[in-house]
Design goal:
14 helices, mainly alpha, elongated, single chain, about 0% strand
Amino acid sequence: MSILQLLLMATGLMTMMVLGYAALSGPSAGKESHRRLQAVRYRHAESTNVKVEAQYKKAVAARKPKLHQVAGSSSRIEALILRLHRTGKGWTLQQYLYASLGLSLTIAVIVYLRSHAALLSLGVGVFVGAGLPHMVVNYFIKKRVSSFTTKFPDAIELLVRGLRSGLPVTETLGVVASEVPGPVGEEFKLITDRIKVGKTMEDALQDTANRLDMAEFSFFCITLAIQRETGGNLAETLSNLSDVLRKRAQMKLKIRAMSSESKASAYIVGSLPFLVFTMIWFVNPVYIGGFFTEDRLIVAGLGGMVWMSIGAFIMAKMVSFEI
């Protein structure tokens, strides 16, 4: 048995042990006890602050995707359709699958013509065909989310002005849909269309929150839910929310500016070995061809990729901040 086969068997056994432990280990008894005590306290408390906190936790739990759901959907296919919708490009599931399949076959053929290694060509083709479209979809989702978060405080301010002038909430939602351009107007147009066909405002907002999967819009839905249960000045509450969202966006920009140098260094350090390897492979395939045929070089290459992945993961965590 070769070194590569032993390495693959050890990796498979370790993966099975980790998955078995994750599947068989139950919930923490301490956390479950604390959750029950908190539920009893919220149920029998008379304080207004405690009741508001209970309503807030209830709203968050109602808008949090369940464990069996993916990205606010009931299946992975539906989650992929939602991701394609969040890009705002009108791409369909069939187009995405055809693009992934065509890219996989193209890359596999190119690698096979250069290396004559069937398994390597298939692996690289599958990796690129599955990873590159996913990265492209992520890029357009982030771009649309950035555009949404930029215009969303302005939309809330428009809602506040409409409420202070005496308009009902549903009418102000229609004003936002017609006056605010970009993704914000599109999403509010969908909300008003759902309300027109008979859905309640809460259900329409909940559907949009599940599709967008954005913290800013979830804050907006939670604010409306709490205000409906506890009462109060909705215009003032939304004005405060708009101010919080603007400050949150400013803090994100500050963090992006402070971590840009570290991210650039991580990109250069992480991509340089792969670029050099590819350049040498195209210039002199015989010199570096041992990494595809000899067991010791294959193990060394896989080990180097594992350590580089660990380093990239650590650097990504160091420059990643949740706001």
